[in-house]
Amino acid sequence: MGGPSVAIVGSGFSGLGLAIALRRAGFTDLTVFERADGVGGVWRENTYPGAACDAPSHLYSYSFEPKHDWSRRFAPQPEILGYLRECARKYGVTEHMRFGTEITAAEFDAAAGRWNLRTAGGETCAADVLVSACGQLSRPSVPAIPGLEAFGGTLFHSARWDHGHDLAGRRVAVVGNGASAVQFVPRIAPEAAKLTVFQREPQWVGWKWDRRYPRLRSRLNRRFPVLQRLSRLGVFLWFEALLNPMLISPRGRKVLSAHVRALCRTTRWSVRDKQTRRILTPGYELGCKRVLVSSDYYRSLNLPHVDVVTSPITRVTSDAVVTADGTAHEVDTIIMGTGFRSHDFVAPLRVTGLDGRTLDDAWRDGPRAYLGLTVAGFPNFFMMYGPNTNVGSGSVVHMLESQIAYIVQAIRALRDPEVLYMDVREGVLSAFDDRLQQRLGGTVWNAGGCTSWYLRDGRRNASNWPGSMLAYRRRTRSLDPADYRFVKR
Ligand code: NAP
């Protein structure tokens, strides 16, 4: 079938999934640009000890490629990366990958109805359709702490783990206590001579109901695929019917507080020290930040050489982290578990649409996109895992598959030789975004009383989808041509 030509930037769960779907739909003129040397996105980059999925793997995988032999309910990072590599191989998309190629700029040529792309190496190329599949969590965030550049020890971010640096016998500072830190702290704590976790706000951490799957289970899954589908459905319903509504509706938030707080409290009982227990107890509503799951994070804090410090970090010296109470915590290693620049979306790719307007211009008041996918004035441009498509509970892979189906429809519409380009109507985008922001106002993410990466500048929520995964699927199931301007040649 061939065209239109499609350029996809990024080969994580989203870019890879789209490439596979396009191939299966018969499109062959596609290129996946990947700055690294292999597929996998965050699952290639986050190799920290203990890195694993925190959504059950039977749901956190493509619906079209169930894996019957996940080793655990929450698969470890190497297994997820192996799964993605195998998908690329099996569906024949590796031949469309251009590894080691970073796209730095994309400019729309309205006369030709094409995107002109420039790579970091200075090469240029063009495509009819541009898809950004860079994710929300690909650019590590390192806080600008005074003195950090003068630190004389070893410093790295959790998403750029320095595996050559042996932590045995080291005095280690961990900045942050988010989803990544609760996974790697229990792994590195037994090795370190001293470990200090610098915590700004405490987290709600629930029990991780992880377990190893027996071989028999894999065999049964293979023999009776319906069993695995039922397992996937069960997890889906747990998120969709129970957890998600509780995060979204004010009434649900009350139920959540009453029941799940009690559950988390039992976990915190595993912390022996009363003072530590106190500082680990959040004062905001459960779900306001992403709910974390771990069965060993709190326990690792019981170790005699592990401390949690809540006094804010004021500066770093050549050999210490200094906190506001005046204490200099001497360390030789600092690990930043400080998350990602989640609101950069397509950065550092500079995207220029109609009339020379950049995405930065369009997003001066914050990122927004119709269904998280399209932006007015940026024709033939689609985003995956774009603004407001994150889920507070559930599987982002389910959201990505909804986006994939929508983008495939759009590309089919662009096959019409009469059509030069399609551009979402500004009025459609504004009405969608207004309604979305209104709905987000009542959710626990906006009103739960915490600071989190969901909120930009502590105000606008440009991250989360305020509905169920099924509602998003319904909204994206069929592309309404009336939402777009189809400009003819
Ligand atoms: P995160 O959840 O954003 O946590 C960052 C941590 O760093 C927070 O504790 C934050 O404190 C702290 N922090 C940030 N800036 C700081 C500063 N200037 N000084 C002191 N502390 C600072 O980051 P993450 O743990 O890397 O996780 C990010 C996201 O990745 C997660 O929400 C999740 O979506 C995803 N993730 C998923 C998995 C999985 O299994 N699927 C695993 C890991 C991560 P505050 O809380 O006070 O802001």
TrEMBL record:
GO molecular function: oxidoreductase activity
UniProt xrefs under Gene3D superfamilies: FAD/NAD(P)-binding domain
Transmembrane segments: none
Keyword check for Nucleus: no
EC number(s) reported in the record: 1.14.13.-
Keyword annotations from UniProtKB, A to Z: FAD, Flavoprotein, Oxidoreductase
Record flagged with keyword Cell membrane: no
Domain of life of the source: Bacteria
Top-rank EC class of the record's enzyme: oxidoreductase
Family, as annotated: Belongs to the FAD-binding monooxygenase family.
Name this polypeptide is given: NAD(P)/FAD-dependent oxidoreductase
Organism the protein comes from: Actinomadura monticuli
Classification of source organism: Bacteria, Bacillati, Actinomycetota, Actinomycetes, Streptosporangiales
